């Protein structure tokens, strides 16, 4: 029996959050609000500019989104610039779907990362 999309999101969030520390968790917790206030592209640009742990969380988000967009579970990170070009050229309906998927995945990431670091 195939996993549901929610299970796939949860599994991916659990796996990527394995390498996170407390700062990563705080970043993951803040990203949904930042996206709501500024937009997905602006937040990805902000994370890219901040580098280090912000970029690590943004990279995990990009990889997840590319997997969902492409339908290829083994897709890799296309990089910041390539992904931004995809978003810049996306039709409004596609962009909204990507944005919605980002929120859905980040919901899981926030919970899984916090759960993993809760005992520290």
Automatic annotation (TrEMBL):
Q: Pfam families, from UniProt?
A: Cas_Cmr5
* Taxonomic superkingdom: Bacteria
The record, for SUPFAM superfamilies, names: AF1862-like (SSF158568)
UniProt keyword annotation of Cytoplasm present: yes
Q: Where in the cell is it found?
A: Cytoplasm
- According to its record, what are the GO cellular component terms? cytoplasm
Keywords of this protein's UniProt record, alphabetized? Antiviral defense, Cytoplasm
Principal localisation? cytoplasm
What biological process terms from GO does the record include? defense response to virus
Q: Does the keyword Cytoplasm apply?
A: yes
Family membership noted in the UniProt record: Belongs to the CRISPR system Cmr5 family.
**What is the protein name for this chain?**
CRISPR type III-B/RAMP module-associated protein Cmr5
């Amino acid at each position: 029996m195939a996993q549901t999309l929610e299970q796939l999101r949860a599994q991916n969030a659990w796996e990527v959050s394995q390498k996170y520390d407390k700062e990563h968790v705080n970043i993951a917790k803040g990203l949904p609000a930042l996206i709501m206030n500024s937009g997905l592209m602006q937040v990805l640009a902000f994370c890219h500019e901040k580098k280090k742990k912000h970029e690590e969380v943004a990279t995990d988000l990009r990889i997840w989104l590319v997997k969902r967009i492409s339908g290829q579970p083994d897709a890799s990170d296309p990089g910041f610039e390539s992904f931004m070009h995809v978003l810049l050229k996306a039709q409004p309906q596609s962009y909204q779907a990507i944005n919605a998927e980002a929120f859905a995945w980040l919901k899981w990431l926030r919970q899984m990362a916090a759960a993993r670091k809760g005992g520290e």
